[in-house]
What does this fold into?
Amino acid sequence: MMRAAADCGHAAVDLQPPGDCGARAVAGFRVALGSRSIVMTNDLEYENVVMEFRGRGATVRALDTFNFHVAESEFVVVVGPSGCGKSTLLHMTAGLMHPTAGRVMLGGSIITDPGPDKAIVFQNFSLFPWKSVRSNIDFGLRINGMPPAERNELIDRYIKLIGLDGFENHYPRQLSGGMQQRVAIARSFVMRPRVLLMDEPFAALDAQNRQLMQEELVRIWSAQRPTVMFITHSVEEAVFLADRIVVISRRPGRVKKVLDVTAVAGASHWRMDPFEDVIRRPDFQELRAEIWGLVKSEIQLRS
Amino acid sequence: MGRQQLQRTFYGLVSIGGIIALWVYLTGSGRVTPIILPPPADVLEGAIDIYRGYLSVPWYEHFRASLVVMLTGYFSAIAVGVPIGVAIAWWRPLEVVLSPLLAVLRPIPPPAWIPLAILWFGIGLAGKAFIVFVAAVVPCIMNSYLAIKETPQELLVSARTLGASQRTLLFEVALPSGLPAIMTGLRIALGTSWATIVAAELVVSLAGFGFLIMNGYRNLESQIVMVGMIAVAVIGFLMNWAFLLIERRLVPWRETDD
It folds into this structure.
C-alpha cells in the first residue's frame, strides 16, 4: 500500500467517508495513510478452503482444501476445466461468498464483505446501462464520498488512460465490447483496489480485441500493480499474462500444479512485449503445451 | 428508421380509411338503419349537438369530468402501487405477507368494485376515482415488482464490490435498472384507467364520455354513442402517444444513436 502514496498522488486524496458505507470502502486507504504507519500488505492467503453448495438432497463440493498464497502485486492466473470452482474462488475472494471451511485472507485479515478494495471485472462487463461512460467510472468514487473536483480529475485521467476520450457521454450500448470492457476495467482501477479479480474478462471479445485488451490490461496494471487473480479458459492468455499459473483439478477443485512463468518470461516479463511476438517464442510454446496437457488430462478424466 | 416509420403510418391510415369507407358504404346503401349504425353525417351532427351543449351540459364538461376522475385515480394508483411493488420485490418478508393478498384481490375485475366504491365513497369524484385506482394499481404493482425482481444480478454484485450500501443498491441500481419496466407498467395502467373511467361513468355520472355513451343509448341516439366512443378512442390514443414521448425522455439509454 505504501507504493500507492508514491505514485501519481491519487491515494494521497483525503477520502474521509461521510457515512457508514464509505467507512468500509476506504478503510484500506486510511490505515495505509494514517499517522500510524501500519504497513499493509495486499497478499492473498487461501488456507484449507472448502466450498460446498447444498442442492436438492445432494451436497456438491466445489472446492476442496484449496491452499494457495498470492504475493502482493503478483499477477496470478487460474486455469482449469469448466466447473472446477474457479469462479467460486473469485467470488469468495471478493467477499460475495464465504467458504464452508477454511479461510480466505487479504493482507492477513479474513475477507468478510465485498468492497472497493476488492474489485471484480466480469466477462459480461456489467456496466450500468443507464449511466454514461463517465458516470459508470464515477459510481464507486461518488458512493464512497469523494468530493466532485477530485472525482472529475481522476475520471479524466482514467478515461484518457483507456483511450476513450470523446466517448465520455456515450451509453455503454453505444460502445463495442472491447470499449465496454475498458470502461469496466477503468471503473475498477479508479477505486485503487488492493486486489483485482478478473473473471474471464476477455472471453466475450473477438480474437483481435482480446489481444488488444490483454496488452492494454498489462499497461494499466503496470501503473498501479494491484494483486491480480485472473481466471481464463485460454491457456495462451494465461501464459502471456501471468507471473504464476495455478492449474485447478476437476471438481472438487484442488491445486493440481503451480507454474512459475517469471522463471521463463525473463526479467522484464514477456507480457510487456507485443503478444504476436511472444507467442512465437519456443519457451512460450513449451509452457503453453505443458499447461494445456495438464488441463486436458482433467477434462478427459471427467468424461 | 424514418422510412419504416412512414410505411407504418401509411398502413395505419389505410386500415383506418378502410373501416371508414366500409362505414360510409354500409350506411349509404340503406341496408343498415341509422339506429343500428348511424351514417358519418349523423355522427358529425351528434358531435355538433354535444358541442352546443347536449342535455345542457357544456362540451368541455365531458372532458373535464372524465379526465379529472381518471387522473385522480391514476396518479393515486402510481403513488401507492409503485412503492408497494418495489417494496415487496426488495424486502422478502413483505413479499411473503402481501403477495397472497394481492393474488386474491387481483382476479376481481375493476367494474365489480363499482357498487362498493359508491357505497364507500359516494357517486362523486372519490367514488369514481377509487374504481380507476383499483384498476390502475394492479399493473403499477405488478410491473414495479417484476422490474425490481429482474434487476440483473451482475449489476447488483458489481455495485456491491464498488462499495454500495443496501440503500444505494435499491435507489441507484435496482430502481434505474427497473425504470423501463416500471414505465411500461405505468403506460398499461394509463390505458386501464381510461377504459375503467368510461365503464364507471356508464353506471353513475352527470357528465363525461361514459355519460354520453349511456345517455345516447337510453335515448336511442346512436350518433351520440358513436361520438362518445370515437372521442374515447382518440383521447386514449393521444394519451398513449404522449406517454411514449415522455418515456423516451426518461429512459434515453434505451435508444441507439447509431
Notes: Residues 33-253 of chain B form a domain with the MetI-like fold fold (CATH 1.10.3720.10). Chain B touches chain A through 25 residues (CB under 8 Å). Chain B has one domain: 33-253.
